[in-house]
Write a structure and sequence with these properties.
The chain has 217 residues and is α+β, with helices and mostly antiparallel strands. The chain folds into two domains: 139 residues, no CATH class; 50 residues, no CATH class. The chain is 17% helix and 30% strand. Strand 8 and strand 9 form a beta hairpin. The structure holds zinc ion.
Length: 217
């Protein structure tokens, strides 16, 4: 069985601001009754430590068209902050520092394409020509925001987190929200349906700023 996840990634938030934004998001999701307050690592269809979606919460599954016979369900919400982790506390959860090498990288295991912010050149991870991206990913593990990519097409150097994706396969950011259990295609439809805009607002994205990454893991 494969697991599916839709990640919304804030690529602009700073390391200093991300923990506070994550705690605020956690508090608001618990307050509106969207998720359970304690983090778990045994939620069905969810490979991350996450907060279980409450069965009476309509916000996530509202994005899944009911016509599909095997309708996916969002079972868990992971709120990921670079070099932090959630720990269960008697009253709920606490976000505490913990270094993890690949923290802040979000990508689809089926394939990664990254787009130069300067010229639009696409690097596909794997084939010859992707060495600059491999190097930047390595650098991210030790340097975080110091990691940059030298574009083989325009020769400009730009921070790794500014590299975008056309195929919704890759993003780097200090705050990522994982919606485990399905790929919510409505989040990338144009124009955005009201259910997608409502979910973005629920997750703290008031200006359509979050990059959407579809992960097949
Ligand atoms: Zn370029």
């Amino acid at each position: 069985m494969s697991d599916k996840c839709t990640y919304l990634v804030n690529r602009r938030i700073s390391t200093a601001d991300a923990p506070g934004a994550a705690r605020e998001l956690y508090r608001s999701l618990v307050e509106v009754g969207a998720v359970e307050p304690h983090p778990r690592n045994n939620i069905p269809l969810c490979l991350a430590t996450a907060f279980a979606v409450r069965s009476d919460c309509p916000h996530f599954d509202a994005l899944v068209p009911p016509k599909y016979p095997r309708r996916p369900h969002i079972t868990g919400v992971a709120i990921e902050v670079t070099d932090y982790e959630w720990r269960a506390e008697p009253g709920g959860a606490e976000l505490t520092p913990r270094y993890r090498a690949g923290s802040g990288l979000f990508f689809n295991n089926d394939g990664v394409e990254a787009v130069c912010p300067g010229c639009g050149h696409v690097i596909e991870l794997g084939p010859p020509g992707s060495e600059p991206l491999y190097k930047a990913l390595d650098d991210w593990c030790s340097m975080r925001d110091g990691a940059s990519v030298v574009c083989p097409n325009c020769a400009n150097t730009s921070p790794l987190h500014e590299w975008d994706t056309a195929s919704h396969s890759f993003a780097v950011g200090h705050l990522g929200i994982g919606l485990w259990g399905g790929m919510l295609g409505a989040l990338t439809e144009e124009p955005q349906p009201p259910s997608a805009l409502a979910l973005r607002r629920l997750l703290g994205d008031n200006a359509n700023d979050y990059a959407v990454i579809y992960c097949h893991i």
